[in-house]
Design a protein that fits this description.
Blueprint: H1 4-7, E1 12-17, E2 20-25, E3 27-28, E4 32-37, H2 46-55, E5 63-65, E6 80-81, E7 88-89, E8 95-97, E9 104-109, E10 122-126, E11 129-130, H3 152-164, H4 172-191
Antiparallel strand pairs: 1-2, 2-4, 3-11, 5-8, 6-7, 9-10
Length: 192
């Protein structure tokens, strides 16, 4: 879940696998990639669990766990509770590259938020500068080259042919109105 302010800086998110998601946030001087991972539970086979952990490369990417940096009371450390609430454990973590560990202001759980799950949200607070997303201009800008600027000769020729192809003759007033409508764009092209 992302608050409205941060959502303005997200160019996209992608499901890498059915258990791994990547979200990109435009930041300064670097973009921030958040990878959410949902590890398989005891319902999965040992081969599936091994395959999942082989895909993860947190230690190879020089990452550190942020949940363990801040001293918290035991009631704010747990991230999972067993059925019937027999025990509580810290099994959900947030990792960050060592290079950016000074940007972490806090990492904590919110057990008071009911997510209809046996897990509780783990939230990280970072000190970052975000870059606004720029809308891409889909229209191509016209350059002032003779190749893409219609010549006045072509305008005059097309105007004449349009008048010749009309089924009914134009009244003098209509001719004047038609000429004025064509004259102004032609003037603009010539003066550019």
């Amino acid at each position: 879940m992302v608050n409205k302010t941060v959502s303005k800086f997200i160019p996209g998110y992608w499901a890498i696998t059915e258990r791994v998601m990547l979200m990109k946030i435009k930041g300064h001087p670097f973009n921030i990639n958040i990878i959410e991972v949902y590890a398989p539970s005891h319902d999965f086979t040992e081969e599936e669990v091994d395959e999942f952990y082989n895909e993860l490369t947190a230690t190879q990417n020089n990452a550190v766990l942020t949940n363990t940096w801040f001293e918290k009371p035991p009631g704010l450390l747990w991230t999972w509770k067993s059925p019937e609430d027999l025990c509580r454990n810290q099994i959900d973590y947030i990792t960050i590259k060592k290079r950016f560990r000074n940007a972490v202001l806090d990492t904590r759980t919110y057990p008071e938020i009911d997510c209809y799950s046996d897990h509780v949200p783990v939230v990280i607070t970072l000190r970052v500068k975000l870059n606004k997303l720029r809308k891409r201009n889909t229209e191509k800008k016209a350059t002032k080259t003779p190749s893409n600027r219609p010549s006045t000769k072509r305008i005059e020729a097309s105007s004449r042919y349009e008048l010749l192809n009309r089924e009914e003759p134009l009244e003098e007033e209509e001719l004047d109105r038609d000429w004025r409508a064509r004259k102004e764009p032609a003037k603009d092209l010539v003066t550019k």
